[in-house]
Amino acid sequence: MRHEYSLQLWDITKSFDSVSVVRDLNLSLMPGKITCLLGPSGCGKSTTLRIAAGLEKQDKGKVFIDGKLISSATSAHMPPENRSVGFMFQDFALFPHLTVKGNIEFGLTSKQSLVAKTQASKALLRKINLEGYQDKYPHMLSGGEQQRVALARAIAAAPKVMLMDEPFSGLDKRLRDEIREQSLQLMKEEGTAVLLVTHEPEEAMRMADNIALMRKGRIVQQGAPYNIYNKPIDSKSAAFFSDINMLTSRVKNGRTETPFGPFITPGFSEGSEVEIIIRPQHLKIDFDRNGKGPNPTVQDGVPARGVVCSSRFLGKESIIELRMETDGSRLRTSIPGVFLPELGTPLWLSMRRDRCFVFLKNHEP
Q: pLDDT class for 291, splitting at 50, 70, 90?
């Protein structure tokens, strides 16, 4: 019987030259689900992937596939070719001397007959919409076609786990979206557990069932895209997924003062410095204190006045930056469509309290 988890990484730690790259990492992948390992460059994402693949051995911890221990820091270490794991990388890594058919059949088990391999490669070419391409060589294919062949080769052996290290980053945006959707949908249909490494929050939000946010070798937050976006663990997590505005203040009598009036901050000790985070789309612009403007809303707290420092139209929305009269701070708001007020125009902002996050200043989990 298939185990509940296709891949489990338990308490994984890895160092290079006494520098800790991955620390006390725990991660579990379920069949047919896509987990994005997300974080900035150098945070340990690729090392984690290499440990799962067997290309690196952890200094501490264990790796399980389908409930079976395949690698322990102190004992067993199954080589990559025996792990039932597929790989996809940025450079596609197709063999230039092999045809498309040859590349795909390379991923099939040597126990299969020539006829069985031919039938399997034809079936995979149909799945990736490349029928008739079997005799072409990689240099005859476009980037998107090469990526699809790499996908077919990777899933040919029906791996339990697919490990993907930013495999779509070399494609242009339109093609990237198309190939990414097709690739991950196919792996879901196959019941393959996918671990996708990326440094792009938008890609993780679009594709993942589960996001594991890494920082300095650790997973600092994990959850469904909706939850991790709307309940960030700290200000750095919030800022990683979108632009933010940050107001800093000090707690006094259970509240802090802001340009929008007092802000209740229960649970924070007296005198502690806090960061109040709000995304630009949750700051609303009005022409006056009465809520008349391009995006009128029910005011929340005291409206605050500022003057326009800049305004830019980005296609789907306009970004307006204002310098607040109360303290000189600069805040950005976004409005759907075109809204380009002149520099120096006075406008009023109101803040959605229910869309704010409050953290201790410089707090890290």
A: low
Task: Give the DSSP letter string of 218-255.
Answer: EEEEEE-HHHHHHS-SSHHHHHHHS--EEEEEE-BTTE
Q: Which residues pair with 217 in a beta bridge?
A: none
The residue among 232, 249, 264 that closes a domain is 232
Q: Give the three-class secondary structure for 78.
A: coil
Q: Which residues contact 18 (CB under 8 A, 6 or more apart)?
A: none
pLDDT in tens, 187-246: 888 889 999 999 999 989 988 999 999 999 999 999 999 999 999 999 999 999 999 999
One-letter amino acid of 192: T
CATH number of the domain to which 45 belongs: 3.40.50.300
Domain count, the chain: 2
Q: Which of 148-157, 288-297, 329-338 has the weakest average pLDDT?
A: 288-297
Q: Please state, as a whole number, how many other Cβ atoms lie within 10 Å of the Cβ of residue 123.
A: 12
253/190 same-domain check: no
For residue 220, which phi and psi values (nearest 5 degrees)?
-95, -20
